[in-house]
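Researcher: Sequence recovery benchmark, item below. Answer with residues only.
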């Protein structure tokens, strides 16, 4: 018996050991292992993964929101590739993760099975539905190239690869692949519907509806999936309708209506059937009756917006604008869940106000609402945004005109009557406010409160009867949402444009004041009820009236130019130009107005065009307008001259950097003599003046500076700087008289302007900076730098006029762009990207002396603590705090430091002369402002950033001043650079060209 037990034990141990060895050994490619792996791969992984995929696609189909105003997409796929689609994961992402996990298990553990190709296809489909189209395309490409013998696998992989490329907007490569798919479809008998569908979608994207129809008809016949057959039949009907084949469209809409389609598809098929029937019969009245009959059916309650929209469209076709507007508004009011429809109704109202009524204020409000409601992937969304922004440009200028006209009206009144009128204007009109007109009550459950005051313990299970539960819930709410105002859309900390527009409309109805109690109380607290600001702004002197008229003229001129050049609305442009001439026959834009009217009348009224042409030639014979009329190529020739001037300036600047000062003087003289009207001449003259200062005495330098102010009195870049230099020289004549040359290189043997001041170590050769030392003083309170932002000029004219805009400078003032003379207290902050520093620290403040500004000279890089405490630039008024907007990378959160950035999209360009020009602008227009500019590079971009600014408003004031001058300042082609404002925190995140592009989009959308 013992021997038997011993033998059995040995046998058992043998089997266990053998099993262990087999388990630990590498799988072999045998018939047994293949059969086992095929079995487990098919039923444990492939089957389950396909079930998950089918369920996911079914859910996606049922939850997909269609835009029935456009041709429906063949597939209910996720949105196309964009930064937003990458940042926002699709719903039910866990199901897709499960498919990825099972597919990778097959590839890793079932290497001898016949389902490796299916696993790669499942991986590609999962990543496609995750909106990671790049990875999906790689998987499909690998499958198509690896498994070429199985035609079904090959066609499926190529089909999905083409779909991935179309989602990436790569239509050309997708078309090449689909050509191959179409040729191979004859070789297979099954699963041909989806490839046909993809080919049809490709044609639809290209608006090739005639080509899409026969392919989609094949897809409908081949499809085994009921939902696809019905959807594709509806799309076929839409395509026939687009081709005005109304009989075929009517038959297909009727077919969908009679099928067991989902209610939304059924309803829209019925709606379109009514529309097409009316077109065929030519009976608008009967069509309206049928549409209105749909309103009586309770099942259509959620679709009233679409019904009203179709009725409005019918009235619009009849040019019955009043009734069309009525039903568009009803559509908006009844839109509960269909943002596409609501957005389209807003868009129609905006277009009516823009095109028919010319009511641009209302049109702007409706375009804002359209943008806020429609999704960003809606076709033409970018154009709608642009139109909205264009209208904002117009409305801002009409606001200026209305304000100035009001002030002038007040100025004409007797003083007592004026004061009474101002008090009336500034009086707060309080509309009756309900005690509680919000969405929520302060006490949501008053009965629960009374029950809980008895002191008896609460034992009920009802949540709102339990004070402890209510307390926890309230705490959790505050933790997640913060202290939100009780109002509609309380979840939104940032109000959309439509909400803001709605509030604005409500305020207009209450004469500009808020209708809610809290808003009224805040307005009363903030409002200047005494009218002091109005009183101070009223133009009571002749000079003030002239300045006020100038603002009105500039605003009208900009509006007219905008209509003529941007909107191509010549009649409206003519009307406004004529209004300028009738109200202000002698104005600073007269030559440009005559020329613009000449252009506007050319095609419609040749006689008027000839009249204004004669006025230009007679009254402004030396202007660029007259020259353009006499020589149509004048503008092109001027552009060539400007390009040659910039090239010449860069060559002279290289001589200057090389300290070849006599050559600089000679070359500038030659260039100005050769091109006496060159726009770059003031800057060349400045280089010549500094070169003279390097080689001659102070009288020669002063004469050169005065020659600049006399020769170029209207220059806004160089002349302000030169005037500051002359004032400084006049204050320190004694010191300059002691020098052998006016602007010597630093020499330790020479007397210093300031004594016992250490000199910072200089990174580049110091000879490019003259030893003209400043005395920095607080600026006078009223010291102002006048800068004119750019105004749109008439076509082909190269000298647009400008609007005057004052940018004040506030004390304390320190000078910049000069060598260090005494230590300066600075705050060190980290510099994130490696930078080429072009920082010039400020001089010591000596209180008793008046505030002259030093001669601006080429900027020299020095080693100093990174950021000096910035000096604020005063703006006209304190800005209202903006709501904080954040995306995954950037934020509009208020920062302590802002930069103005110029992005040059070409790393091969030398920016020395451009940076010199920025320094000139800073010293001439923001003397003592503590402004510095630096350079950083990455990828193919160079970023010049100017700072520091203590607020966005300060940076905006600076941008408004420098932007019109960038054409002169930047010695690079105009198309290679752009500018923007950015906070220090956002700037530190810029590490690549891609991030710069993303920030530019963020900046345009939120500032």
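Model:
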């Amino acid at each position: 018996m013992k021997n038997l037990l011993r033998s059995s034990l040995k046998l058992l141990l043998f089997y266990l050991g053998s099993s262990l060895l087999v388990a630990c050994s590498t799988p072999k490619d045998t018939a047994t292992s293949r059969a086992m792996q095929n079995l487990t791969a098919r039923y444990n992984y492939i089957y389950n993964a396909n079930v998950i995929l089918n369920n996911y696609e079914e859910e996606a189909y049922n939850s997909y929101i269609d835009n029935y105003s456009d041709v429906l997409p063949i597939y209910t796929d996720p949105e196309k590739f964009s930064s937003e689609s990458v940042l926002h994961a699709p719903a039910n992402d866990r199901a897709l993760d499960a498919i990825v996990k099972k597919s990778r298990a097959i590839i890793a553990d079932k290497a001898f099975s016949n389902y490796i190709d299916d696993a790669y296809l499942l991986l590609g489909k999962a990543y496609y539905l995750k909106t990671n189209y790049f990875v999906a395309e790689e998987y499909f490409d690998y499958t198509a190239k690896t498994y070429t013998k199985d035609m079904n696998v090959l066609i499926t992989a190529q089909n999905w690869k083409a779909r991935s490329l179309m989602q990436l907007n790569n239509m050309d490569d997708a078309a090449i692949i689909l050509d191959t798919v179409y040729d191979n479809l004859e070789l297979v008998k099954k699963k041909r519907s989806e490839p046909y569908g993809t080919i049809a979608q490709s044609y639809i994207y290209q608006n090739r509806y005639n080509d899409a129809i026969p392919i989609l008809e094949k897809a409908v016949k081949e499809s085994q999936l009921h939902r696809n057959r019905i959807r594709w039949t509806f799309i076929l009907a839409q395509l026939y309708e687009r081709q005005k084949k109304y009989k075929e469209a009517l038959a297909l809409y009727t077919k969908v209506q009679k099928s067991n389609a989902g209610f939304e598809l059924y309803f829209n098929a019925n709606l379109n059937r009514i529309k097409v029937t009316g077109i065929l019969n030519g009976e608008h009245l009967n069509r309206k009756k049928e549409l209105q009959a749909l309103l009586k059916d309770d099942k259509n309650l959620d679709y009233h917006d679409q019904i009203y929209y179709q009725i409005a469209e019918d009235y619009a076709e009849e040019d019955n604008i009043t009734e069309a507007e009525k039903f568009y508004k009803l559509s908006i009011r009844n839109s509960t869940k269909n943002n596409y429809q609501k957005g389209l109704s807003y868009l129609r109202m905006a277009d009516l106000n823009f095109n028919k009524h010319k009511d641009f204020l209302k049109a702007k409000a409706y375009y804002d609402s359209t943008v806020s409601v429609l999704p960003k992937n809606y076709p033409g969304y970018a154009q709608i945004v642009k139109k909205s922004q264009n209208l904002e440009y117009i409305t801002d200028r009409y606001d200026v005109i209305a304000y100035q006209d009001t002030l002038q009206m007040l100025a004409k009144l007797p003083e007592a009557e004026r004061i009474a009128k101002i008090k009336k204007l500034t009086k707060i009109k309080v509309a009756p406010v309900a005690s509680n007109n919000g969405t929520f009550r302060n006490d949501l459950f008053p009965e629960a409160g009374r029950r809980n005051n008895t002191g008896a313990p609460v034992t009920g299970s009802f949540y709102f009867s339990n004070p402890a539960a209510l307390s926890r819930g309230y705490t959790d709410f505050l933790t997640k949402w913060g202290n939100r105002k009780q109002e509609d859309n309380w979840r939104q900390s940032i109000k959309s444009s439509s909400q803001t527009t709605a509030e604005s409309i409500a305020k207009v109805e209450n004469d500009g004041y808020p209708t809610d109690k809290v808003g009224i109380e805040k307005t009363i607290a903030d409002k200047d009820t005494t009218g002091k600001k109005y009183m101070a702004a009223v133009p009571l002197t002749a000079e003030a009236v002239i300045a006020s008229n100038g603002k009105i003229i500039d605003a009208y001129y900009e509006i007219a130019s905008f209509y003529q050049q941007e909107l191509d609305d010549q009649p409206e442009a003519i009307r406004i130009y004529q209004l300028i001439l009738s109200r202000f026959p002698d104005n600073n834009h007269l030559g440009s107005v005559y020329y613009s009217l000449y252009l506007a009348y050319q095609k419609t009224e040749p006689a008027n065009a000839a009249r204004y042409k004669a006025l230009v030639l007679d009254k402004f014979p030396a202007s660029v307008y007259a020259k353009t009329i006499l020589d149509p190529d004048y503008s092109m020739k001027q552009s060539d001259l400007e390009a040659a001037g910039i090239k010449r300036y860069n060559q002279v600047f290289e001589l200057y950097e090389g300290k070849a000062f006599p050559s600089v003087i000679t070359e500038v003289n030659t260039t100005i003599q050769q091109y006496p009207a060159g726009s770059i001449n003031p800057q060349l003259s400045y280089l010549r003046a500094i070169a003279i200062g390097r080689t001659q005495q102070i009288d020669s330098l002063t004469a050169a500076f005065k020659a600049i102010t006399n020769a170029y009195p209207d220059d806004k870049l160089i002349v302000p700087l030169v005037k500051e230099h002359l004032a400084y020289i006049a204050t320190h004549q004694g010191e300059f008289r002691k020098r052998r040359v006016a602007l010597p290189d630093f020499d330790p043997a020479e007397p210093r302007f300031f004594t016992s001041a250490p000199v910072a170590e200089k990174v580049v050769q110091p000879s490019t900076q003259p030893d003209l030392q400043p005395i920095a003083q607080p600026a006078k309170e009223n010291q102002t730098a006048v800068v004119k932002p750019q105004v749109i000029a008439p076509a082909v004219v190269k000298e647009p006029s400008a609007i005057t805009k004052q940018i004040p400078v506030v004390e304390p003032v320190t000078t910049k762009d000069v060598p260090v003379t005494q230590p300066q207290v600075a705050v060190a902050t980290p510099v994130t990207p490696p930078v080429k520093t072009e920082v010039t620290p400020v001089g010591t403040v000596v209180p008793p002396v008046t505030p002259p500004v030093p001669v601006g000279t080429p900027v020299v890089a020095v080693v100093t603590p990174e950021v000096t405490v910035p000096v604020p630039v005063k703006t006209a008024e304190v800005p209202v705090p903006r709501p904080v907007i954040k995306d995954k990378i950037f934020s509009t959160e208020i920062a302590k430091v802002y930069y103005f950035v110029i992005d040059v999209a070409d790393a091969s360009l030398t920016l020395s002369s451009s940076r010199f020009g920025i320094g000139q602008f800073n010293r001439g227009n923001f003397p003592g402002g503590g402004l510095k500019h630096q350079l950083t590079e990455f990828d193919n971009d160079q970023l010049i950033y100017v700072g520091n600014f203590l607020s966005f408003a300060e940076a905006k004031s600076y941008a408004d001043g420098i932007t019109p001058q960038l054409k002169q300042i930047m010695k690079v082609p105009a198309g290679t650079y752009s500018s923007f404002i950015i906070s220090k925190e956002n700037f530190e995140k810029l590490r690549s060209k891609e991030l710069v592009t993303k920030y530019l989009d963020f900046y345009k959308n939120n500032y």
